[in-house]
Design brief:
globular; 99 residues; 85% helix; mainly alpha
Length: 99
């Protein structure tokens, strides 16, 4: 996949998946609860990975600007962060449509 194609895929995916989340939760009410619980769990994991990484940097006395970027290599950090991004867009979309 070319670089521009990947960028387009990421942007379009964030829009399409958020809309799909909104549409599916309208048809199956239980999905609202599942999305909300998943967001809480992801926020806890995301925040804990972040805080533990910063704690380790402070404890080791390493240079923060170079060491903190290693957290981006953690797949769990990336997955939880991407779900939280989709969830925020989904909740904003729901608020805009329902108002």
């Amino acid at each position: 996949m070319k670089d521009d194609d990947m960028k387009l895929f990421l942007v379009a995916g964030s829009i399409v998946l958020s809309v799909v989340m909104y549409l599916t939760q309208n048809h199956w009410y239980r999905l609202r609860f599942i999305f909300n619980v998943a967001a809480v769990i992801c926020a806890l994991i995301f925040g804990n990975i972040t805080s533990l990484s910063i704690y380790q940097i402070i404890k080791d006395g390493t240079v923060m600007m170079t060491a903190i970027h290693a957290v981006f290599l953690n797949p769990l950090f990336l997955m939880t962060g991407s779900f939280l991004g989709l969830y925020m867009i989904y909740r904003i979309l729901a608020a805009v449509i329902e108002e």
